[in-house]
Specification:
about 240 residues, binds 5-O-phosphono-beta-D-ribofuranose, NUDIX_hydrolase_dom
Amino acid sequence: MSFVHQKCRNVDVPYLGSQIYRTSVPDDLVKWNRDWADYAPPNYTDKKVHGQAWADPEINDHNQYTFDPKTLSPINPIGRTGLAGRGLLGRWGPNHAADPIVSRISDEGHLEFVAIQRRDNREWAIPGGMVDAGEHVTQTLQREFTEEAMNGNIDKDSLKELWSDGKELYRGYVDDPRNTDNAWMETVVFNFHDSNGLLNNVDLQAGDDATALRWIRVDSKEPLYASHAHFIDLLKSAHSK
Ligand code: RP5
């Protein structure tokens, strides 16, 4: 399970968009049940989060997760990250996302998927995003792909067949660099495999939070954002069966 808790303990760079460094958490002290009496990570919630409709209020009121009896904040289920507060995440506890992996077999016979370059840290990623309030996750998968990989150019019918045949690959915690001790990303990953060349008639173009787009081969070992390399390993296994 090492993929789940590396990027959110990175102490080489400050937390995204800030000058705040995490407390360094050694591997053997990640689990909350390991004693660390002096553990006092910086508490940081980005100013951008305050007062937003998509974010929780300052004072949280949770009882559905394990929570810290002192601060009443939900506790990261994997362990310490070296940072308290919400960082850039709106919700205390899980922040829900959806990741559409759109794949095909290239003319050369390689399995490849659509990747975008993220505006925030320039890393390559699956074009996923946050589930909006009241939105069903199947809508999020299509909306995010349309916004980030088709620059919002919706032609509802051209990809209807593709969207109708998604396969779930993963559901759960993400090792997102924005995670903190009290707020973390969870996602649902679906594969939409284009067996019929539907994407040949679609104009793939980076949009919204994406600055570039390209097809990446699953065996390229390209470093990817958060846990996305793990999701691509799952894609590879699913297609080798
Ligand atoms: C990752 O962050 C998820 O796997 C998803 O790809 C992404 C959602 O966040 P935004 O792209 O909306 O910033 O943890």
